[in-house]
Amino acid sequence: MEYKELTDQELLEEQKKLNSFSILNAFLIGFLVGIVLFSIYYHAYGIALLIPLFLIYKLTNDPRNKRVKELEMELKVRKLR
After folding, report:
1. Any residues with CB less than 8 A from the CB of 36 and at least 6 apart, and which?
2. Residue 26: inside a domain, yes or no?
């Protein structure tokens, strides 16, 4: 999606959609980091440690994160924030 082609109103609506994604993503990453720290504290190395690490990697490399950054840059250029 090209953000340069969207109107100001459409950009703000897209920001609302991606904002809810960002909040959920941050919550999930925090929860998984908690599981990793819990596993390390109780010396439970193995699946209990590897699965959350893999999921954190997948969540941080989600293509929607790039869309959020592109949208923020376009909002800054248009001074809508």
Report:
1. 49, 52, 53, 56
2. yes
Token pair in block for residue 59: 């969540």
Find the helix or strand (DSSP H, E) in which 17 lies: helix 8-41
pLDDT grade, residue 1 (50/70/90)? low
CA 63 to chain centre: 9
Type of residue at 63:
P
Number of structural domains found in the chain: 1
Residue 1 lies inside a defined structural domain of this protein:
no
What's the whole-number average pLDDT of the chain? Answer: 90
3-state secondary structure of 22: helix
DSSP string, 30-72: HHHHHHHHHHHHTT--SHHHHHHHHHHHHHHT-HHHHHHHHHH
